[in-house]
């Protein structure tokens, strides 16, 4: 027997069924980690003899004559976290009180978990009442609790150190504890429960509450609802269609709503009450009512089946002086994204799964503020991407644009590579899954600060940008994959700062590998997939 053993780590031993019966002899054991041992059903007998334990990650409560909570009674030196699993096996309130959680002053976080097939004769509220922890506790998580209400100690102001609480799948609860009385409390996550107002709450999340239809603050005194709330997340609450807030959300900076049905009404009622909002994230919705956006808005992520025009109008109407990022997903509307429709403060534009969205081929205005453009699975009509629309672009990423044929400077450029043709800020180009992509600008991609060029799965591409050695002197990363027609490296050689050019599954480059090594004295790492 390893009498002097101090640490035993068994986490993720998913096949472990039981632990040695004589573990109580390990009197010097200080740390026992048995997290995620899914088949372990109970603890070894007489574990209470290990009075020197400082870390016990999980305590599995046995059925019938198995391990009882009383085995925790003497383990008063436990630190950090303790997870009590299978609380449905507790035989009554007296059994729960034997755990003496209130004596474990070094515990910072306690997890309490029930399964939904326990003894219906046991009063879960009485059990939870007796699982009173020490007031030094900082975090509490409750899973699967089937009581109709929470005990009085949960929310008591004596728990002055609690900062976070998670309530998950407490399906029988009809009300929440008075968490607003906790002086340090700032984060709560609620899943499959109804919500109530919290005066000092900073982060609030609702997820998968499929039957929730109405959120009302009627009866709450004016000025007391969410006065400190900074983040609000509503996900999977598809029936929520009525929101009645008696006051604004003066400190809210981040609002995330995902729900296909009632989202329009929620937005119409909530956005006018968010004077400090900086980030807005909306899931897929049919016709969002975005009549006006807060002037403080900096970032918007939106998935719209229809109604992109409404978003563009709201951006212009709302005088969004600070808007920097626009992320658009799953738009079915045939809309042309004109430069004059976007704010001059915009620095990042991301478009995903918007097949009908179009860029204008010719336009006198330029989006000089934009630094990053990402296009993915979008813009089916896009054949030519006009780089000079974005003269200060830093990063360009285009993925799965079926009809894209080339990058270049539009006909409004001066054509000689000067002035409008200069892309002095461009640092990174990523092109992937564009089967019709055949060319870069012919002698006109003046990007002296280009550092990274990556091209993948472009089956028709035959050559890289011309004059790379002179036009792209800063390039140090060149990666090419699955471009079977690519056969020519640029005339004049490769850029001087390029490390090792990398090519995968580009068979026509193989013949040039030795030629380029002899010419540039640099090896091109070139290989062909055997699949």
Question: What general form does the structure show?
Answer: globular
Average pLDDT, rounded to a whole number, is 80
Give me the CATH fold name of the domain at 1-196. Answer: Leucine-rich repeat, LRR (right-handed beta-alpha superhelix)
CATH-wise, what's the superfamily of the domain at 1-196?
Ribonuclease Inhibitor
Structural class: mainly beta
Query: What is the rounded distance between the termini?
Result: 53 Å
- Proportion of β residues? 15-25%
Question: Main beta sheet: strand number and arrangement?
Answer: 20 strands, parallel
The radius of gyration is 31 Å
* Shape-level CATH architecture of the domain at 1-196: Alpha-Beta Horseshoe
Q: Main attributes?
A:
20-stranded parallel beta sheet; 531 residues; 3-stranded parallel beta sheet; 6 helices; Leucine-rich repeat, LRR (right-handed beta-alpha superhelix); mainly beta
